[in-house]
Design a protein that fits this description.
432 residues, mainly alpha, two-stranded antiparallel sheet, 71% helix, transmembrane, transport
Length: 432
């Protein structure tokens, strides 16, 4: 394959994952209250780290690298927990990065025997966790559609109109296009919505003009990391759920590439994701996971050459040193961003539901596990002070909705599915 074709395919992979990559820092930075300079840095370092994480994973080494044409980006599973840690009065931004570094180290340590731990994360557990995360994120999307919490024009007609026009554009592109264009429907909606927002006077170009043409990244840009036990537990659970999701992507790619995977291959893949999280925490980025949209692109194009993904990773790293390009993403009007979030977070919820439906039809126990875990997880997110009276040692597991829901799902799965007799259910006739 010649260099031109390889580069063109690499750019296609970059565009397919770009919207997902930039949305994460935009959502998190906006929720924590970053200014335009901080937001520009956050987007730039995230783009660069997507490239580094991709290069670590596509590499096939002795200890790291799955060696498949896989592209990595920040996991949406981490968005809600990071926002919760960053906005918690007793925690803060340095706890975010401490927990990301610590969870990355833990993932690297357990990578070799995570295959044995996977039995504690069956679809009923991971589906419940993903559903909780998606539902917990919806208030962020809706507040942004209205203009952003605290905005002077919150819920104004112009904000709502711009948000829904953007959403309609995303839906129309998704409905009436196929292949690559459909894969970048969110990105097309963001661009179209921003152009419309500019005509409505809702776009401020000063962050682009103020940004440097080039910059050097620096470790601990937002301060030295601090290590909070609750935050570390939260991010470690997020990392484990992410590994379960990544395992599915690994096997999907191995099928496409006709390459059999063994436990050592999986361990190298898990270590790469853990290492990417450690480096991400040091440079104030995020945990990273495999992006399934790029798997679809690999299947659609039929090109399995890792050289293409190496070029994609290199391009992402190069973009990380160009603040003006990063600043371009920060001028997206908040209602436009909110519309894209609604679509993306809705997909997270449906992904969780897709995991749950088959297993809930298998047994009444699974339906009860999901019901209680999701209800508790979302309930704690909505009413965060409900378990404040509990001892501090227990509140580590109950103060965060995602941790509470995850631990509940794990314990109930052990109780109902791993201990004692199992009761099967016929979805048409009830328990048998």
């Amino acid at each position: 394959m010649n260099a031109f074709k390889s580069t063109a395919l690499a750019i296609q992979h970059l565009l397919a994952m770009y919207a997902g990559a930039i949305l994460v820092p935009l959502i998190i930075g906006g929720a924590i209250g970053f200014d335009s300079t901080q937001m520009t840095y956050l987007v730039a370092i995230d783009i660069m780290m997507c490239g580094i994480a991709t290069l670590l994973q596509v590499y096939y080494g002795k200890f790291i690298g799955i060696g498949l044409p896989v592209v990595l980006g920040c996991t949406f599973t981490a968005v809600s927990p990071i926002i919760a840690i960053g906005t918690n009065p007793e925690q803060g931004i340095t706890d975010i990065y401490g927990s990301i570094i610590a969870s990355g180290v833990i993932i690297m340590i357990i990578a070799g025997f995570f295959g044995k731990l996977v039995k504690f994360f069956p679809p009923v557990v991971t589906g419940s966790v993903v559903s909780i995360i998606g539902i917990s994120l919806l208030p962020v999307a809706l507040n942004n559609m209205a203009g952003g919490l605290g905005a002077k024009d919150f819920a104004s007609g112009s904000n709502i109109a711009l948000a829904f026009i953007t959403l309609v554009i995303i839906l129309v592109v998704y409905r009436f296009s196929t292949g690559f264009v459909r894969a970048i429907s969110i990105l097309i909606g963001l661009v179209a919505g921003t152009i419309l927002g500019a005509f409505m006077g809702k776009v401020d170009f000063s962050p682009v003009s103020d940004a440097d043409a080039l910059h050097m990244v620096q470790p601990f840009y937002f301060g030295m990391p601090t290590f909070d036990a609750t935050a570390i537990i939260t991010m470690t659970l997020v990392g484990m759920v992410s590994l379960v999701e990544s395992t599915g992507v690994y096997f999907a790619l191995s099928d496409i590439c006709n390459k059999k995977l063994d436990s050592k291959d999986l361990a190298r893949g898990y270590r790469s994701e853990g290492l990417a999280s450690v480096i991400g925490g040091i440079f104030n980025a995020f945990p990273y996971t495999t992006f399934s949209q790029n798997v679809g692109l690999t299947r659609m194009s039929g090109v399995k050459d890792r050289k293409v993904i190496y070029i994609t990773g290199g391009l992402l790293v190069a973009l990380g040193f160009l603040p003006k390009i990063a600043a371009l993403t920060t001028i997206i009007p908040t209602p436009v961003l909110g519309a894209a979030m609604l679509a993306m977070f809705g997909m997270v919820i449906t992904q969780g539901m897709g995991m749950l439906v088959p297993v809930m039809n298998e047994s009444a126990e699974n339906a009860m596990i999901a019901a209680v875990a999701v209800s508790l997880g979302v309930g704690v997110s909505v009413v965060p002070g409900i378990f404040d009276a509990l001892p501090e040692s227990i509140s580590l597991l109950t103060s965060n909705g995602i941790v509470c829901g995850s631990v509940t799902a794990i314990i109930l799965n052990i109780l109902f599915n791993m201990i004692g007799p199992k009761h099967k259910v016929d979805p048409m006739h009830g328990e048998v």
